[in-house]
Structures are given as structure tokens and as C-alpha cells.
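Hello Y.,

Per our agreement to keep a running log of every chain we model this quarter, I'm adding this entry. I've kept the format consistent with earlier entries: sequence first, then predicted structure.
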Amino acid sequence: MKTLDYDPVTPTENDSMLARDSSRKLVRYASSDLSVRVGDSEETVVLPAAAVRLLVDLLSAMADGNAVTLIPIHAELTTQQAADLLGVSRPFIVKQIELGVIPHRKVGTHRRILFRDLMAYKKSTETAREQALDQLTAEAQDLDMGY
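Predicted structure for the entry above:
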């Protein structure tokens, strides 16, 4: 089994242009399996629809110049990897773990966080943030603050 490299791939300007063109062409096939001819050979590879959708998303992100990485849902992340994914500091992640907000397990003295648990945490914080903004907007409108 191949060890996955979670380091992001940052597209070059040429990569971004190719990705933009490719994603625009592939998006119309994103709801069905896709047969792809490999290079100049007669060999074809059939991609499942789910993989085609992921490929379109990946290419779209690259087209925007964003660094991308592929992480399986069952992957275990270090606290630093989790912090990098959320754009926060490692001490912040450790604090959330110690508060019991983010589930983890220990491997020796090292903490490991399941990717799916990290994404659940991210979703819950985004939901709470949206609710707080909605409440602030409602209060501003009730007070006739011109919003």
C-alpha cells in the first residue's frame, strides 16, 4: 500500500491554465462514468462518476491557483497538519483537544486526529459562525442601523 503524501501541490501558472480548460471540458461528464484514452495508446481507463466529480473540483481549485492535496476520510493527522488545514496555530488545536472539542487518540505521546473528526469540527464552527452573523444582522435590522 502506498503511503500518501499530504503535502499540498501548488500549481504553476501553466498548470492553472491547463486545469481551467480541463475542468470546463470535464464538468459536463461529472454525473456519469467516463472512459478516458491514455496518451497516444488505444488503452482506455474508466473513471467512476464520483472520481470525475472529484477531478473537476481538484482542477477548479488548481485553476484558481490554489494549492491542493488529497486526504482520505480515514486519515489520521498530526496536530500540526490539522492546524495547517484549518489555518490556525498548533497550540489552538491542542487546546481544543484538551477541552474535548476535537476527538483524538494518542500514539505514544503524540496526538492523532481523524480527518473526518476535524472536518466535523470545522463544519460545526462554521455553522455557529453563520448563526452568530445571522443574529447580528437581525439585531442590526431591529435597531434600524441601516443594514
